[in-house]
Amino acid sequence: MQTSPDGHAYPAHWEADVVLRDGGTARIRPITVDDAERLVSFYEQVSDESKYYRFFAPYPRLSAKDVHRFTHHDFVDRVGLAATVGGEFIATVRYDRINAEGLPASAPADEAEVAFLVQDAHQGRGVASALLEHIAAVARERGIRRFAAEVLPANNKMIKVFTDAGYTQKRSFEDGVVRLEFDLEPTDRSRAVQWAREQRAEARSVQRLLAPGSVAVIGAGRTPGGVGRSVLANLRDAGFTGRLFAVNKALQEKELDGVPAYRSVRDITEPVDLAVVAVPAPYVPEVVAECGVHGVQGLVVVSAGYAESGPEGRRLQRELVRQARSYGMRIIGPNAFGVINTSPQVRLNASLAPEMPRPGRIGLFAQSGAIGIALLSRLHRRGGGVTGVTGVSTFVSSGNRADVSGNDVLQYWYDDPDTDVALMYLESIGNPRKFTRLARRTAAAKPLVVVQGARHGGVAPLGHTVRPTRLPYATVSALLRQAGVIRVDTITELVDAGLLLARQPLPQGPRVAILGNSESLGLLTYDACLAQGLRPLPPLDLTTAASAEDFRRALAHALSEGGCDAVVVTAIPAVGETSARDAALAEALRSASAEAPTKPVLVVHVELGGLAEALSAAASTAPQTAPQTAAPAPGAADGIRTPAASGPPASRAAGPPGEGPPAPAGSAPVPDRRLIPAYPAAERAVRALAEAVRYAQWRRDAAQPGKVPEYEDIDEKGAAAQIDALLARGEGLTLGTEEACVLLGRYGIDVRRALPAPSPDDAVQAARTLGYPVALKTTAPHLRHRADLGGVRLDLADEEQLRRAYSELTDLFGTPQELRPVVQAMAPRGVDTVVRAVIDPAAGAVLSFGLAGAASELLGDTAHRLVPVTDREATSLVRSIRTAPLLFGWRGSAPVDTAALEELLLRVSRLVDDHPEVVAVSLEPVVVAPHGLSVLGATVRLARAPVRDDLGPRTLPVV
Asked: What's the helix, strand, coil split of the chain in %, to 5?
């Protein structure tokens, strides 16, 4: 299978696993001469009607000539792809290159006829749409720019496949046949269609894992305490609403803990949607095969002994994923903690968590089982008992995340009506480019809070297979924030921010009112607000003698003020009998907050046991027969509920209905309310509020996205031709000065000429050519862009000064051959900046900006944006570095031309976006003057663009 009959190498990079519309998977690969029997078997299972639509005539069977034609391809002018499940064909597509007369042709002909055939049992699963994406990518790779297809008018399904793809099309009708012609160049619409299909398919694949109708636990032992037996007990105790089965080869019993028991999945006479695999790793392949044959839709593999254990385990993990995908199944794990769905319609606890979390509106994803346990525990303490009923909608612990990853779960949460806030603990990001795309879309609809572990180690955990990135953690963090992700550093901050976002509306600005009965606690809160970039109002001290009514009036007044966007209430315990006072204070805060449901309220408390009980009582959905007596856990937050308004959690004043433990039978329903979160420290409350303020601002900005401007002077075709000619010389090419200047000039980026000066006389001649005053600079690598080391002489007004400067440089630093001096005309005075762009293998194209100089490099004061950059993003990029005031007239200096700087950033962005072969650009320094700017140095590096990237056809990660 390694070469075609015509001698062309087998294109292994065309192989791909894809998720179909119903959430199942299929493998797409080139058809080869070894597929003759598979093709014949496939064709026999296609209906006569589908055969008629394919060949425009009755065609009951394939002749030997047909089989030869459809299995012999040259992988250039004739290509066939097949979608397979279980190793058998379920659909095929092929193209044949044709000339203008419609006859077989070779390059440079750039048109091809395309035709599909999908097995009837698999029609409606989106197989043809996936095949079209892949065959189009193959065709573009082989120089084909257009597809033509002839379809019978009655074949509405296939016509729809072509018309819905989003390509630019032309349709005609001739001799009873519909002829469709369409360009293969991706369009904004074709990408939108592709990404929408990707979202629906991947969300559905996760839904099948989280909402199964039946579950089999494979490896449920006869003695209590094992992993499989524990998962079985957890499923049963959670009240799983579907059918539950226990499977173990050693079982002789017909039941296990009241659950029907079988020795093999094959013995179960009913469908099994989800299998939890808890057998030792060597036995997993046999289990997977049995599940695949039985038609199981997905697997949760809690078994360990895979990539986390070393190279052999990594090999076993790859084989596991390939085997499962070959049957159309997706995997959570291996080495997974499990999955949970608290929906009353499902009640799934297919995990090692002994207790079902309280139902709620927070989605949790953790790559680490230990961190997953910690998150569930903290939310249980802070979202139940003490604080009321904020709970979990779904929980996924992916373990080694060999298949299902955070990207897939994001696709599910995006339109999940039961999830309002998403919290994620990530130890690695397998596809940062896709993650930022999905995060941006998700964050526009609901808050996404992320904490990243192993961020300073430089390597991913052993069980994780990820593409390497050259970007430092700070850069990745900045790119995530650009995508709307709320980045925090600890799981404590993760829960703090998540509870606020789940319970309160988003603030409309950074203005914070502070009130309470402790002047010191108020001042701490004030300082914390300033440290987080908020704008606190002077704290209002109600004194320790303040009553609940004083709190209510003060809070109501603060919320009614137009100059306030949020309120932090600080409280210390009263001396003496406190129960009645705390209950009254809780009711007072609830009452005042209800009058202004569009502004967030937070409470900072100091070990208020009585208030915690009162807050919990106010939040409970069950009838209260007696006060709660349990003391709050250390560090636990408290909450009260207030009447709700309509709208999503990110913009409403109310929490969603149905949170919390189910009320006892016969209890009356309680109206929907919102919780007021409370924190044991001012810094934690303010940090969570600051994240909400920044996220709210991002939401407002995202609602009015910028645009990527068009520049009439850009010569995109000329740049492409120059790049192709340069790359013909070899890979990994760093351009010379003249070549770099020409390429940049095609995008309207002018670089000031720098003439070589290998001798003093050459320097003088260069200065005469350029005109005085001039600068003399060394370009040796160890001195380049290091004015602080003395390798630059500026404002040389005449020949005498130039010769003296030349002599000084060579006396101090070495010979002209070592220094490589150049002469450059002086640029207008301004602020020295640096503009860079790099293609990272994992994150994609990144544009960076900062001020030039060692201080900025030392402090890491550089801002980043993903390419392509819009006009609004360019504006924010310039203003987001800490030293930005130097550009805007700091200490009486003249403001520089930031408009020209923003245009330069946009042009560099366009260059690397239009030409992925431009893998690195560095403009240093860029001197920004009050009027205009000057690019004094430029470096450009070229390399062949990758065949596939995130803009290519839908694929699952390669294992």
From this structure: 35, 20, 40
Predicted confidence band at 63 (pLDDT cuts at 50, 70, 90)? Answer: very high
Give me the percent of the chain exceeding a pLDDT of 70: 87
The two beta strands, 774-778 and 821-825, are antiparallel
H or E segment to which residue 602 belongs? strand 601-605
Token pair listed for 405: 């990853």
293 pLDDT exceeds 90? Answer: yes
Whether 652 has a pLDDT exceeding 80, the answer reads no
CA 417 to centroid of chain Cα atoms:
20
Q: Which residues pair with 97 in a beta bridge?
A: 112
Phi, psi of 34 (to 5 degrees): -80, 0
3-state class (DSSP) for residue 871:
helix
Across the chain, mean pLDDT equals 86
Determine the Cα–Cα distance for residues 90 and 119; give it in Å rounded to an integer.
5
Euclidean distance between CA atoms 949 and 844, whole angstroms: 9
Inter-helix orientation angle 682-702/491-503, to 10°: 60
Q: Cβ(682)–Cβ(604) under 8 Å?
A: yes
What is the phi/psi pair of residue 855, to 5°?
Answer: -60, -45
> What is the longest distance spanned by two Cα atoms in the chain?
103
Residue 603, SS3 per DSSP: strand
Tell me 558's DSSP state: H
pLDDT for 121 equals 94
Q: 410-419, 571-580, 814-823: lowest mean pLDDT where? A: 571-580
Instruction: With a cut of 80, say whether residue 623 has pLDDT above it.
Output: no
Do the beta carbons of residue 414 and residue 441 sit within 8 Å?
yes
Residues 6+ apart with CB under 8 A from 174: none
d(CA 246, CA 218): 6
Which of 706, 648, 234, 728 minimizes the C-alpha distance to 445?
648
Q: How far apart are alpha carbons 368 and 480 in whole angstroms?
A: 20
Closest to 649 in 3D by CA, of 374, 445, 367, 893: 445
pLDDT tens for 192-224 read 999 999 999 999 999 999 999 999 999 998 888
> Which residues, other chains included, contact 629 with Cβ-Cβ below 8 Å and sequence gap of 6+?
613
CA distance linking residue 456 with residue 459, whole number of Å: 8
Cβ partners under 8 Å of residue 66, min gap 6: none
DSSP 956: P
| Strand, helix or coil for residue 245 | strand
Question: Among candidates 883, 884, 865, 877, which has minimal Cα distance to 902?
Answer: 877
Instruction: Give the whole-angstrom CA distance, residue 601 versus residue 510.
Output: 13
**Strands annotated E in 162-303:** 169-174, 177-183, 214-218, 243-247, 255-256, 259-262, 274-277, 298-301
Instruction: Name the token pair of 648.
Output: 């999503």
pLDDT of 33: 95
Asked if 726 and 796 count as a contact pair (C-beta separation under 8 A), the reply is no
Neighbour-count burial of 270, counting CB atoms closer than 10 A to its CB (0-12 exposed, 13-18 middle, 19+ buried): exposed
Residue 957 pLDDT:
83
**Structure confidence at residue 5 (pLDDT):** 55
Q: What does the pLDDT read at residue 389?
A: 55
| DSSP code for 377 | H
Q: What are the structure tokens assigned to 790, written together?
A: 């003395």
In the DSSP assignment, the letter for residue 282 is: G
Q: What is the mean pLDDT of residues 816-829?
A: 89
Please indicate whether residue 751 or residue 611 has the higher confidence score (pLDDT): 751
CA 114 to chain centre: 34
862 bridge partner residues: 850
Strands (E), 237-328: 243-247, 255-256, 259-262, 274-277, 298-301
When mean pLDDT is compared across 551-555, 625-629, 858-862, the lowest value belongs to 625-629
CA-nearest of 741, 748, 811, 818 to 781 is: 818
- What's the pLDDT tens digit per position in 360-396? 999 999 988 888 888 888 887 775 433 345 789 999 9
For residues 91-104, average pLDDT: 94
